[in-house]
Amino acid sequence: MPELAVMSLIRDDQPLNAMVDFAVENDFKAIELNGRRHCAEKLSQEELDYFRGVADGHGITINLHYNHGALPGSHSTSVWHETLESLKRNLEMTKNLGGKVVVLHPGKIDVPTLAAPEDGSELIRREAIRNLKRFVRQVAPVAEGLGINVCIENLFHDPGYVLQSYEDLASVIDDADSPNVGATVDVGHCNRGDGIPDAIRVLGDRVRHLHLNDVIDGVDHHEIGTGILDLDEMEPLVAHDLNVEFATLEVGARSPDGEGIILRSRDVLRKRYGAAVG
Fold first, then answer.
1. Could you tell me if 196 and 234 are in contact, meaning their C-beta atoms sit under 8 angstroms apart?
2. CATH number of the domain bearing residue 55
3. Range of the domain at 67
4. Is residue 41 domain-resident?
């Protein structure tokens, strides 16, 4: 079973140390920084030193979920380059914190002349995929030099998104041809779309990282064990024959009982998969 991680922020009003203290007190050995707030562009040197101290003092790995709204497939040259330089800064930050994984959203179609991403034609989407591949090819050698895995997350296969299938995601990873580029499989996103079995079948050993959450009535990021997530179906993702080192519990966000949701979710995983669950 991969090492379980918690997010660094589950409620917007939380102080910086809240989830760190929670992780330490409950014996989690990994934290995934929420890139909306906890990133190279927003963290002070004092805050970065704090996270490094946590990593060193408690043996906690500090990974990063890069900016959720990133547009690495943008048709805008300036947006594309700004995103690339930002991700490079955040890869360097993650390395300095002792982290191993940076999660990248492939994002939505971004064309300055389009009113909305959903208005993009299939031709435009295909061009966005080429932009995304070029982006990841630029990032790959930086990640290799730093020893960081860039893991591209499966999003929704809905109009407006650059990637519309697991095959699209696999093609981006394969195009990079790098040992440091892989996939993050979000099982909630799978269960809102084309399912977990197809993700396993198509992505296979490209999978390097997991986001774990349940789905109720088409809404993801619910407490594990309360929705449609099939733990037997998910088992191949957490088996040791895949090179998955971390699995982040993406549950409890914005809930007053967020910490309880995280602990109950871990308990469900332990009941199904045994003591190997971190």
1. yes
2. 3.20.20.150
3. 3-273
4. yes
